[in-house]
Amino acid sequence: MKTLAVISRVLCYPTAELQAAVPDMRRAIREEGLLTPEVQWRLDALLGEIAETPLLDLQEVYVNLFDRGRNLSLHLFEHVHGESRDRGQAMVELMNQYAAAGLEVDAYELPDYLPLFLEYLSQRDRAEIDELLGDAMGVAILLGARLTERGSSYAVAFDALECIAGTPEDAADFRKHAAGEGPDETIEKMDEIWEEEQVTFLGNSDPSSGGCSTGAGQGDQVRTAAVEWIEQPSRGAAGGK
Question: Is residue 236, in this structure, part of any structural domain at all?
């Protein structure tokens, strides 16, 4: 699913390579036609910002959003497990799942890094995409709502995921929570919503049973693989890297 590969790329640290790939990403989104017209228009506008904004300015915006604390961390399990030992076990299990599918993860990458997770899913069949992305949508809705509250155009990346996976039943609760947060939300305060709404991921309702740095130098393998996936006219759904 090339749309997931595009979203993966959009959420990676901006590079000149990313800017150059915008025409291919736009074409992939149009060809698959998985998004609503409104979300597709907004995603196209974000891709335009990425292509036309001076790279250093684009990188500054990205770092200020995703690298300034845990509130908008792109590491999924950070929002589910925080810094508990359960996060380590969940990441081991996710790493094993990647390995079983033939995906080799760079030593400097954490398996729960959202762009990596989406790049993995982009190469899987629809049934697996629906299952695993559906499990992650609670976190995705919360992150998208927080970006919306900040007026960030990056929010459309999470709206696009919602178009693909559907809207979870508790989406309104996550959005309400995000609307009531202050600008300096911490992991301790974020935990309140997980206490109110049970979060599951990869089919794991018990954090103890397990269950996938967003800055420069993190995710190079994801960026390269996603570009290759977008640019190739056809590819098997189950292949690795």
Answer: no
The pLDDT assigned to 88 comes to 60
Axis crossing angle, helix 126-149 with helix 155-165, rounded to the nearest 10:
150
Give CA 11 to chain center in angstroms: 6
3-state secondary structure of 83: coil
Query: Is residue 54 in a domain?
Result: yes
Distance CA 216, CA 211 (A): 27
Position 163 in a domain:
yes
Partner residues linked to 75 by β-bridges: 113
Nearest C-alpha neighbor of 36 from the set 190, 156, 146: 156
**What does the block give as tokens for 237?**
């759904």
Longest Cα–Cα distance in the chain: 45
The number of CA neighbours under 13 Å toward the Cβ of 128 is 15
Q: Is 201 helix (H, G, I), strand (E, B) or coil?
A: strand
Mean pLDDT over 126-150 rounds to 88
Q: Is the Cα dihedral 12, 232, 153, 181 positive or negative? A: negative
- Residue 204 phi, psi dihedral angles, 5° rounding: -105, 110
Bridge partner list, 204: 201
> Is 238 contained in some domain?
no
- Averaged pLDDT of the chain: 75
What DSSP character marks residue 103? P
* Number of neighbours of residue 46 by Cβ within 10 angstroms: 18
Q: What is the pTM of this model?
A: 0.72
Question: Would you state the pLDDT for residue 226?
Answer: 44
Look up residue 2 and give its two tokens: 């090339």
Q: Using one digit for the tens of pLDDT, what is the confidence trace for 91-105?
A: 666 777 777 777 776
Rounded-to-integer distance, Cα 195 and Cα 184, Å: 20
Structural domain that includes position 68: 2-231
Into how many domains does the chain fold? 1
